[in-house]
């Protein structure tokens, strides 16, 4: 069975004042707690601005990692908060260690990948080399870096609510359907949806 581990940290966390830092960490904690309930994930926040998440079902991990990035990007108006992330997939290895001390292969791979990931990017690693992964990763980092906060917010709800009709998002965010449609288009929501489908199918196929 494939698992996934996301390692991440907050970009420029040391430059935040104490009030903003506390608010950012509260949102991150809330987001990761939601993943624990929704996906059965386990997480730990450590070193003040870093975190690690274990996803026991790897098919949920890519969507969850995108949601983490989009949430922090949009939830502080005028102050986008960016994450550097490394998401590694691999076979599960038994361990009773806390996440920050886990020496399983996927945990190590994720932590090492984070060290070489460019600031504010997301890096991805499958158990074997995959040419499509390089294309997806390059596209993601180019695209996500250019999102406005409003685009990130609309796309977040589109992914979080499992691709609802536009009027559902419009009602939730008090927007017109036309504006939702425009933000989804500019935010390349369908391409993100297809990327999620790629990882879901890969993980489900690897677990047969």
Core attributes:
53% helix, 8 helices, alpha+beta
Q: Can you offer a commentary on this structure?
A:
By secondary structure, this protein is α+β, with helices and mostly antiparallel strands. The protein is built from 8 helices and 5 strands; from the N terminus they run βαββαβαβααααα. Strands 2-3-1-4-5 form a 5-stranded mixed beta sheet, sandwiched between helices. About 35% of the residues are buried. The mean pLDDT is about 90.
Biggest sheet, open or closed, and with what strands and sense? 5 strands, mixed
Count of individual helical segments? 8
- Number of separate structural domains: 1
Q: Please identify the oligomeric state.
A: single chain
**Gross CATH architecture:** 2-Layer Sandwich
Average predicted local confidence, pLDDT: 92
CATH class: Alpha Beta
Our Rg estimate from Cα atoms comes to 17 Å
CATH superfamily assignment? Nucleotide cyclase, GGDEF domain
Low-confidence stretches: none
Count of DSSP strands: 5
**Proportion of helical residues:** 40-55%
Strand line-up of the largest beta sheet? 2-3-1-4-5
List the helices and strands and how they pair.
Layout: E1 2-10, H1 18-39, E2 42-46, E3 50-55, H2 61-74, E4 83-91, H3 105-115, E5 122-125, H4 131-145, H5 149-160, H6 166-173, H7 177-186, H8 189-206
Parallel strand pairs: 4-5
Antiparallel strand pairs: 1-3, 1-4, 2-3
Summarize the structure.
The chain is α+β, with helices and mostly antiparallel strands and 208 residues long.
